[in-house]
Design a protein that fits this description.
Layout (H helix, E strand, L loop, with lengths): L2 H12 L4 E2 L3 H10 L4 E4 L5 E5 L12 H6 L5 E3 L19 E3 L19 E3 L18 E3 L8 E3 L10 H4 L3 H14 L6 E7 L6 H9 L16 E10 L5 E9 L8 H4 L7 E4 L1
Length: about 280
Amino acid sequence: MSDLDIIKQIEKELGVTLKETGEIELAFAFALELGESCYTTDTQGKVEGLSCYGCNIKDLNRIALQLKSLTNLTWLNLSSNQINDLEGIKSLTNLTWLYLSSNQISDLEGIKDLTNLVLLDLTDNPIDALPRWIADFHLELKWDSGWKDGFIYFYDNPLKNPPVEIVKQGKEAVKNYFEQLEIQGKDEIYEAKLMIVGEPGSGKTTLMNKLFDRDFSVPNEKTESTVGIEVRPNWEFAIGSEKDFKAHIWDFGRATDSVHAAPVFPYIRLPLYING
């Protein structure tokens, strides 16, 4: 069976028409910039590039056998589908460029053995955890979107393990993260900073007093406006039968520009703001 026969099988299975584009550079433009579904062949009529962009693919196993039969395939674009399992491409070890953005991928096991890849695009997927082997994969990790060779792109994924801040630093930082995790273990910290900002006289200090003391009377003529910043630590409340949550409250007073409160304190990581 020829590669063109295989293309026809893929078209029939997906209910689409794949456009032949000629040279692979042109396929890049059609598939990546225009979002086209297309394929390209070499001088021997062998398919070397295939784009099934936006073909409503949920289960890759529908075309896994056909993809495996395209033995010269090095460039594959499966972006903007609903793929959640990469089992159907794990045997495509000749791939060098693989585009999987805007899918439903969370498990990366299917790309572990694709050691000829020079680019892997995983942007805009629900990936919240990276496997430990990714730190030893031959491509650098990048929190960005792009088509430059040498990278796996993770932009716009809800990464928690490791955190986005670690991934932004690259593969070496991710490797160190996993090594430290093995040594030190992991625990959850139920603690945060609560920053109350707003116009003078809007009730910021009153709110803080009420949070610490439910019996605090409102309005209260004895309450004086805060000058500068008042930090009151250890406001605790239960979030379950076993854990208490602790918040440290920052009250920004009338001598502080509330609009620019956050940039003044860049070291305060991920606080909750209440703007009065």
